[in-house]
């Protein structure tokens, strides 16, 4: 997940991703876009951004059913 500090939407998305990935046994990480100029330029307007295996899955909010289906389809669960 890509996000930034002091971002309410990022905190909410991170909680959802933590819960969903925890239930599915899928590892995940959060990266602060403000720590990398390239990421900030690419994604800074759209955080939080959910990536699956490095590919953009969605942004601004977590669509739980869609995320679960994508993780199941990626072979990660």
Automatic annotation (TrEMBL):
Q: Which InterPro entries match?
A: Glutaredoxin-like, Thioredoxin-like_sf
Q: Which domain of life is it from?
A: Bacteria
Pfam families found in the cross-reference section: Glrx-like (PF05768)
Under which name does UniProt file this protein?
Glutaredoxin
Organism of origin is Herbihabitans rhizosphaerae
Lineage of origin: Bacteria, Bacillati, Actinomycetota, Actinomycetes, Pseudonocardiales
